[in-house]
Specification:
Layout lengths: L8 E5 L5 H12 L9 H6 L10 E6 L2 E10 L3 H12 L4 H6 L9 E8 L8 H10 L10 E3 L10 H8 L6
Parallel strand pairs: 4-5
Antiparallel strand pairs: 1-2, 2-3, 3-4
Helix pairs in contact: 5-6
Length: about 170
Protein backbone atom coordinates (compact mmCIF):
# COMPACT_ATOMS: atom_id res chain seq x y z
CA UNK A 1 0.00 0.00 0.00
CA UNK A 2 2.82 2.41 -0.77
CA UNK A 3 2.11 5.98 -1.86
CA UNK A 4 -1.41 6.29 -0.53
CA UNK A 5 -3.04 9.43 -1.87
CA UNK A 6 -3.72 11.96 0.87
CA UNK A 7 -7.27 12.58 -0.25
CA UNK A 8 -8.32 9.02 0.53
CA UNK A 9 -7.12 9.09 4.14
CA UNK A 10 -9.67 10.23 6.68
CA UNK A 11 -8.75 11.12 10.26
CA UNK A 12 -11.33 10.47 12.94
CA UNK A 13 -11.54 10.57 16.70
CA UNK A 14 -11.65 7.11 18.23
CA UNK A 15 -14.83 5.92 19.91
CA UNK A 16 -15.36 3.25 22.56
CA UNK A 17 -15.93 0.82 19.67
CA UNK A 18 -12.25 1.34 18.74
CA UNK A 19 -10.97 0.08 22.10
CA UNK A 20 -9.25 -2.95 20.56
CA UNK A 21 -7.31 -0.80 18.08
CA UNK A 22 -6.35 1.71 20.77
CA UNK A 23 -5.13 -1.08 23.07
CA UNK A 24 -3.22 -2.69 20.19
CA UNK A 25 -1.62 0.69 19.43
CA UNK A 26 -0.31 1.02 22.99
CA UNK A 27 1.03 -2.54 23.05
CA UNK A 28 2.57 -2.36 19.59
CA UNK A 29 4.22 1.02 20.09
CA UNK A 30 5.73 -0.12 23.37
CA UNK A 31 6.74 -3.54 22.04
CA UNK A 32 4.69 -5.33 24.71
CA UNK A 33 2.94 -8.70 24.70
CA UNK A 34 -0.86 -8.61 24.78
CA UNK A 35 -0.97 -10.94 27.78
CA UNK A 36 0.95 -8.53 29.98
CA UNK A 37 -2.09 -6.34 30.77
CA UNK A 38 -5.23 -8.51 30.89
CA UNK A 39 -7.43 -5.55 31.85
CA UNK A 40 -6.14 -3.17 29.16
CA UNK A 41 -9.56 -2.92 27.51
CA UNK A 42 -11.04 -1.64 30.79
CA UNK A 43 -8.37 1.09 30.85
CA UNK A 44 -8.98 2.02 27.21
CA UNK A 45 -12.75 2.23 27.74
CA UNK A 46 -12.36 4.76 30.56
CA UNK A 47 -12.22 8.46 29.75
CA UNK A 48 -9.71 9.37 32.45
CA UNK A 49 -6.63 7.30 31.57
CA UNK A 50 -3.60 7.86 29.36
CA UNK A 51 -4.67 5.16 26.91
CA UNK A 52 -8.33 6.15 26.77
CA UNK A 53 -10.14 6.01 23.45
CA UNK A 54 -10.73 9.75 23.99
CA UNK A 55 -6.99 10.40 23.48
CA UNK A 56 -6.79 8.55 20.18
CA UNK A 57 -7.03 9.56 16.51
CA UNK A 58 -7.43 6.97 13.79
CA UNK A 59 -6.41 7.04 10.15
CA UNK A 60 -8.96 5.40 7.87
CA UNK A 61 -7.87 4.49 4.34
CA UNK A 62 -10.45 3.30 1.84
CA UNK A 63 -12.83 2.57 4.69
CA UNK A 64 -10.27 0.48 6.60
CA UNK A 65 -8.64 1.50 9.87
CA UNK A 66 -4.96 1.88 9.05
CA UNK A 67 -3.30 3.33 12.13
CA UNK A 68 -3.78 5.05 15.44
CA UNK A 69 -2.06 7.75 17.49
CA UNK A 70 -2.59 8.22 21.22
CA UNK A 71 -1.69 11.75 22.36
CA UNK A 72 -2.78 14.09 25.12
CA UNK A 73 -2.16 17.29 27.02
CA UNK A 74 0.41 17.13 29.79
CA UNK A 75 -1.80 19.24 32.04
CA UNK A 76 -3.33 16.23 33.82
CA UNK A 77 -0.54 13.79 33.06
CA UNK A 78 0.40 12.74 36.62
CA UNK A 79 -3.20 12.03 37.67
CA UNK A 80 -3.89 10.11 34.44
CA UNK A 81 -0.60 8.20 34.72
CA UNK A 82 -1.27 7.21 38.31
CA UNK A 83 -4.81 6.09 37.47
CA UNK A 84 -3.69 4.20 34.35
CA UNK A 85 -0.86 2.28 35.96
CA UNK A 86 -2.85 1.58 39.13
CA UNK A 87 -5.48 -0.09 36.95
CA UNK A 88 -2.99 -1.94 34.74
CA UNK A 89 -0.64 -3.24 37.42
CA UNK A 90 -0.32 -3.70 41.13
CA UNK A 91 2.15 -0.80 41.33
CA UNK A 92 2.36 0.87 44.71
CA UNK A 93 1.62 4.54 45.35
CA UNK A 94 5.23 4.87 46.48
CA UNK A 95 6.53 3.49 43.17
CA UNK A 96 4.22 5.78 41.19
CA UNK A 97 5.57 8.81 43.02
CA UNK A 98 9.13 7.79 42.09
CA UNK A 99 8.29 7.77 38.36
CA UNK A 100 9.53 10.78 36.41
CA UNK A 101 6.74 12.45 34.44
CA UNK A 102 6.92 12.04 30.66
CA UNK A 103 4.74 15.09 30.05
CA UNK A 104 4.35 18.40 31.84
CA UNK A 105 1.68 21.13 31.98
CA UNK A 106 1.67 23.11 28.77
CA UNK A 107 2.99 20.20 26.68
CA UNK A 108 1.22 18.00 24.19
CA UNK A 109 2.53 14.45 24.46
CA UNK A 110 2.65 12.02 21.55
CA UNK A 111 2.46 8.73 23.43
CA UNK A 112 1.84 5.77 21.15
CA UNK A 113 1.71 5.44 17.38
CA UNK A 114 1.15 2.26 15.40
CA UNK A 115 0.22 1.53 11.81
CA UNK A 116 -1.19 -1.81 10.72
CA UNK A 117 1.42 -3.86 8.85
CA UNK A 118 -0.31 -3.69 5.48
CA UNK A 119 -0.27 0.15 5.60
CA UNK A 120 3.30 0.65 6.84
CA UNK A 121 5.62 2.66 4.64
CA UNK A 122 2.75 4.62 3.14
CA UNK A 123 3.14 7.83 5.17
CA UNK A 124 0.20 7.20 7.47
CA UNK A 125 2.27 7.51 10.68
CA UNK A 126 3.59 10.93 9.71
CA UNK A 127 0.16 12.00 8.50
CA UNK A 128 -1.40 10.98 11.84
CA UNK A 129 1.15 13.10 13.69
CA UNK A 130 0.49 16.13 11.47
CA UNK A 131 -3.27 15.62 11.85
CA UNK A 132 -3.09 15.46 15.64
CA UNK A 133 -0.98 18.63 15.83
CA UNK A 134 -3.07 20.72 13.43
CA UNK A 135 -5.58 22.03 16.01
CA UNK A 136 -2.92 22.86 18.59
CA UNK A 137 -1.77 26.39 19.21
CA UNK A 138 1.77 27.08 18.07
CA UNK A 139 4.13 25.71 20.67
CA UNK A 140 7.86 25.72 21.03
CA UNK A 141 9.67 22.45 20.26
CA UNK A 142 10.32 22.07 23.98
CA UNK A 143 6.56 21.87 24.50
CA UNK A 144 5.99 19.05 22.05
CA UNK A 145 7.30 15.83 23.45
CA UNK A 146 7.53 12.27 22.28
CA UNK A 147 9.56 9.44 23.72
CA UNK A 148 11.09 7.35 20.93
CA UNK A 149 11.37 4.15 22.95
CA UNK A 150 10.79 1.38 20.52
CA UNK A 151 13.13 1.68 17.55
CA UNK A 152 11.23 -0.99 15.64
CA UNK A 153 7.92 0.87 15.62
CA UNK A 154 8.52 4.62 15.45
CA UNK A 155 11.84 5.52 13.90
CA UNK A 156 10.71 5.66 10.31
CA UNK A 157 12.13 8.66 8.51
CA UNK A 158 8.70 9.91 7.40
CA UNK A 159 7.42 10.02 10.98
CA UNK A 160 10.48 11.85 12.24
CA UNK A 161 10.21 14.27 9.31
CA UNK A 162 6.58 14.88 10.31
CA UNK A 163 7.72 15.89 13.78
CA UNK A 164 10.48 18.06 12.35
CA UNK A 165 8.18 19.75 9.85
CA UNK A 166 5.65 20.98 12.41
CA UNK A 167 5.45 24.74 12.04
CA UNK A 168 6.96 25.96 15.28
CA UNK A 169 8.53 29.29 16.14
CA UNK A 170 12.31 29.47 16.28
Amino acid sequence: MKNIERNIIEYVDATPLDSSLVGWTFLTAMGLDSGRFPNLEEVVLREDTLYSWKNARIAVCDGRKAGCLIAYSGNDYVAMRDRTWSLLTDISREDLEKMEPEAFPGEYYLDSLAVLPEFRGSGIGGALIRDSLRPLPRVSPARLSSARRNPTTMPCAATIRALDSVNMPK
